Amino acid sequence: MTRLTDVWRSHLLSTLSGNSEGRPAWVDRLEEGTDAGFFGPGSASWIVHGELPTLVAGIRSLLMQALHPGALAGVHDWSRYRDDPLGRLTGTIQWLMTVTFADTATAERESERVRRFHTRVTGTYVDAAGRTREYSAGDPELLSWVHNVFTDSFLSCQELWGSRIPGGADTYVHEWTRAGTLIGVGAPPRSAAELRAQLHAVLAAGTLKSDDRVREIVSFIRTPPLSPAVMPAYRLLFAGAVASIPREYRELLGLRRPLFPAVTTTRIVLGLVRRILGRSSTSEEAALRRIARIRASV
User: Fold this and answer.
1) Most buried in the list 23, 32, 35, 68, measured by CB within 10 Å?
2) 37 neighbors 49 (Cβ within 8 angstroms)
3) What DSSP designation does 122 have?
4) How many whole angstroms separate alpha carbon 15 and alpha carbon 233?
């Protein structure tokens, strides 16, 4: 049983971080720097991004992003997700954890790296009205959609499966405006109500679209080429992600709410993963060591 647990732990860590020890090279940079970063221990962002509901939130966010044809075109045209499915995942995790846990200078450099990449991601797509439009990953409309579905996914999953958010949902949304600003979002929402109003406005405007590309990416996210050892757990987390998506978006994705109690099942799976991986993340531990060093030098 111990051997099986060790194998599963290794597969999980490789999937999430690209490293079987769960500590990729960029985590070392989180120990460097001269300040506590944009948020700090006990903040809403540290709690939300340091807990295991992020596993489900990542799946949910990718599904929601796919509904905007401009955002999906960028993934379809530029992402190597078919050849390197974990590459995009680990790149996103690197940015998320760096902005959350690094010192301010490192977080700004990482966000600048993302902005430079966005300037190269350009092309055309057919919008929901059948018009051909040009896109850039740095377009305010696309940045806003990606930021909002990301924030909504991590907030919703934390509320379903995580611990209490310090200050509540509004505090998390307000804190995470900093991340939106760092990558160029013009007017990120500052409360949970404003967040959901912005999401609904995009839906009501008829911007979102369901087509063959959406079905292709949904199929890929449903059954990615992961290790057979982690696929059973992943399928249950996918079901939890689907169950957490509001009906109007779920229908556009062509997904049905699972017939079994996916929310409860996901809670059980996350509990098992927590027992295997432990409660704290390597990113948070590195940040705490940085902050302890700074305090000791004062």
Assistant:
1) 68
2) no
3) E
4) 13
How far is 68 from 210, CA to CA, in rounded Å?
9
Q: What is the pLDDT of residues 191-235, one digit of tens each?
A: 999 999 999 999 999 999 999 999 999 999 999 887 787 889 899
The DSSP result for 182-203, as a single string, is HTT-SS--SSHHHHHHHHHHHH
Beta-bridge partners for 124: 134
Runs of H (alpha helix) within the chain: 2-17, 44-50, 54-65, 69-78, 85-101, 104-120, 140-161, 168-175, 177-182, 192-204, 212-222, 231-244, 247-252, 262-277, 282-297
27 DSSP assignment: G
* Helix/strand/coil for 136: strand
**Residues 6 or more apart from 168 whose CB is under 8 A from it?**
44
Residue type, position 69, single letter = P
- Tokens describing residue 46: 């540290």
pLDDT digits (tens, 9 = 90+) for 138-188: 899 999 999 999 999 999 999 999 999 999 999 999 999 999 999 999 999
Residue 39 has φ and ψ, to the nearest 5°, of -120, -65
